[in-house]
Amino acid sequence: MKILIAEDDLITCRILEKNIESWGYEVVLARSGGQAWQALKDSSLRLAILDWMMPGMDGIEICKKIRRRKKYKYTYIILLSAKDRKQDIIAGLSSGADDYMAKPVNFLELRARLQTGKRIIDLEDKLLYVQNQLKDLASRDSLTKLWNRVEISKFLREELDRTQREKKPLGVIMVDVDYFKKINDLFGHNIGDLALLQVVSRIKRKVRRSDKVGRYGGDEIIVILPNCGLLEIKKIAERLRASIARRGVKTGEETFPVTISAGCASSENRPHASAESLIKAADAALLKAKNQGRNCVFVDDDVTENTREVKNV
User: Fold this and answer.
1) What is the pLDDT of residue 27?
2) In what order do the strands lie in the sheet containing 76-81?
3) 63-114, pLDDT tens digit by residue?
């Protein structure tokens, strides 16, 4: 672990450096407040020993600036000072320091306090990891591990705002597994789940890293494609359809065919579209594709107002 030593006195700085390196830490030195603040922009610096009195910017000011940062991981701060009055200690801790040591430094005590700081940093990192894992689980569909409906809808709104600002098109493809209900009825839900997982796997292999794929509901998959107009999105949807239709789904020793229908919409011909209206347009195109016999792609530009919904799909 790296530790910042911010100390303007050269002799004190070298003594601190020698001892702390002997304890197995990597040391970064700063001789002024400005140098310390620049060094702390390195996100890997999680422990800092700051002298209260330094040229340019003192330790108290640096503590306050560190605590105002929002995007950085927590930095554990030990404030050093020749001041040892209670009001000085209170002022130092109130500025955002985690610990306070009076000079001259007792190195056995400093080592113990650094170990405490390291444990706190490690615990915080573990907590953040668990929080991120839980957040990811809450954002994912439990079966397919795709983004769930809430999260993919959020991505769509954010991407649409961005593309409208940049005056670029945004494409949406709604994909539906053909006769999915019959697959479940004939082979059972376990085989239906397997078919859906294989469809998802093939879709993910055919889209770009910048594209987002989510499970919108049931067997309906939504793909969000930045910078895609109607012509591009139709080509992509055709590529997805062909990839899935090319080979069947294997279930042990048996293989049965699986196809998809896809509906495409783009903000290219709907420059003021909302996320909800784009989804509605793609869904209408999907229903039109099913009316045309399934295993095909339809684009929003070809959809009429009176598209009739296909039942038991």
Assistant:
1) 94
2) 26-30, 2-6, 45-51, 76-81, 99-102
3) 999 999 888 889 999 999 888 788 888 988 999 999 999 888 899 999 999 9
Domains located in the chain, CATH noted: 2-138 (3.40.50.2300), 149-302 (3.30.70.270)
Q: Got the DSSP string for 77-107?
A: EEEEES--SHHHHHHHHHTT-SEEEESSP-H
pLDDT digits (tens, 9 = 90+) for 159-199: 999 999 999 999 999 999 999 999 888 888 998 999 999 99
**257/161 Cα distance (integer angstroms):** 39
With both helix axes pointing from N to C terminus, report the angle between 189-206 and 230-245 in degrees, rounded to the nearest 10.
130
Residues designated as active site: 219
Specify burial of residue 275 (Cβ count, 10 A radius: 0-12, 13-18, 19+). Answer: buried
Q: Quick one: tokens of 283?
A: 């869904």
Q: Give the pLDDT band of residue 300 (cuts 50, 70, 90).
A: confident
pLDDT of residue 219: 92
- 3-class SS of residue 139: helix
